[in-house]
Amino acid sequence: MPNEIINPNKNTHLIGHDEAIKLFLTAYNSGSLHHGWLITGPEGIGKATLAYKIARFLLTAEENKTYNSLDISPTHPIFGQIVQKSHPDFKVLERDYTETDKKKLIKAINSGDTIDEELKQSLKRSSVIKVEDVRDVVSFLSKKSFNNNWRVVIVDSADELNTSSANALLKILEEPPLKSILLLLSHNPGKLLPTIRSRCAKLALQPLKEDNVASLIRRYLPDLDEQSVKGLAKISKGSIGRAINYASNNALSIYEDIKKICYSGTKSDGTLLLELANFAASDEDCWDLFSELICRFIRDNMADTQNKAKLYEAYEAILKILNEVNNLNMDKKQSALQILSLLAEV
After folding, report:
1. Helix pair angle (251-264, 270-281), 10° resolution
2. Structure confidence at residue 118 (pLDDT)
3. b (16+ CB within 10 A) / e for 155-169
C-alpha cells in the first residue's frame, strides 16, 4: 500500500523543493525553457514526483499565461492519462521488462487479465536502459505533437543508461525537436557522460529536512506511533522513500537492536546478537538491509564518539567484510557476528 500511495505518477504532494519549482517556473514564464533538465539528488527525496508534476503542468499549461504553481487537479483528464502513460505527447524512458517477463505481460494482456500494480511489481526488468529503448524515444519525438502541444519525456533514471543508450540520448539533447522537453533523473550525476550533463539545465534537489520527512511519514503512514515516526525520520537521512521502505521492513527495530548490541560492548545480549545475525543471513534482502543499517549506524556515531580513530578503523574492516560477502560468498551469519563484535569493541 505505501508504495502505491507515493507512486510518483499519482502523487500530488511534494514538499521541501520550492526553490527547484521556482527555478523551473521562472524559466517557463520567461519563455526560456531549456529542452533538457537534469533533476539530481539522493534516492527517495521526490525527483520523480517533481518530474511528473512538471509533465502534467506542461501538458495542461496555456500559452502566454504566467504561472506560480505546477499543480493541476487530480480530476483533470490529463492527470489520468499521465498515470496510465496513455497521453500521446508523454513518454517514460526506463528499463524495459526482460524478454521472458515481457512475454508474460503480453500473454496477460491478450488473455484480458487485469494488469494490476502487484503483477507489474513481480515482473523483472533489464539491468540497463537499452539503445533500442532510446530509439523508441527518437521515433516518439519525430511525430507531430497533439494540438501543437509540448512533448515530454521522463528518463527514469539516466544512471541506468549504458554507453550505447547514453550516446543515443545525447544525440537527442544535441538536436532537440521543437517544443520537446527531456527530464532526466539521476542519483549519481557524476557518473553520467559530461556531455549529457552540459546539455541540460540543472535542478539539484537536496535531502529533505527531518521535520519534512516526519510530516510525510504521518501523511502516508497515519497508523504509525509518534516515536516510530521520529525514529524513521532520523535514520532515513532526508529520504521519504527510504523511510517508507524502512517502515515496511521493520528497519527501525533492527537499527535499535544494532544500537543496543554495540552500546553494550562486551556485555552484549548473546541471544539478541544471534537473532540479529540470523536475520542478516536469512536472505539477500535482509543482508542488504542489515549492511545498510550498519553503515548508517557508523555514520550516525562518527561525529559523536570519543573513539573516532578506532571507529574509522572498524568501519574500514567492516567494509572489507561486506565486500568479501558480496564478492566471495562468505558466510553471512559469521560475517554479521564479526561486524557486530567489531563495533561492540569500539
Report:
1. 140
2. 61
3. bbbbbbbeeebbebb
Q: Are 59 and 44 in contact (CB under 8 A)?
A: no
Tell me the per-residue pLDDT of 231-246, one tens digit each, with 9 for 90 and over. Answer: 999 999 999 999 999 9
Residues of the chain with pLDDT under 50: 1-4
CB 2 within 8 A of CB 248: yes
pLDDT at 1: 41
pLDDT given at position 2: 46
Name 7's Cβ contacts closer than 8 Å, sequence gap at least 6: 117
Nearest to 218 by CA among 2, 7, 68: 2
CB atoms within 10 A of CB 337: 18
> Grid coordinates standing for 48?
520523480
Strands (E), 113-178: 151-155
Query: Tell me: the pLDDT tens digits for 69-81?
Result: 999 999 999 999 9
**Rounded to an integer, what distance in angstroms lies between the CA atom of residue 103 and that of residue 254?**
39
Distance CA 135, CA 139 (A): 6
3 state DSSP class of 67? coil
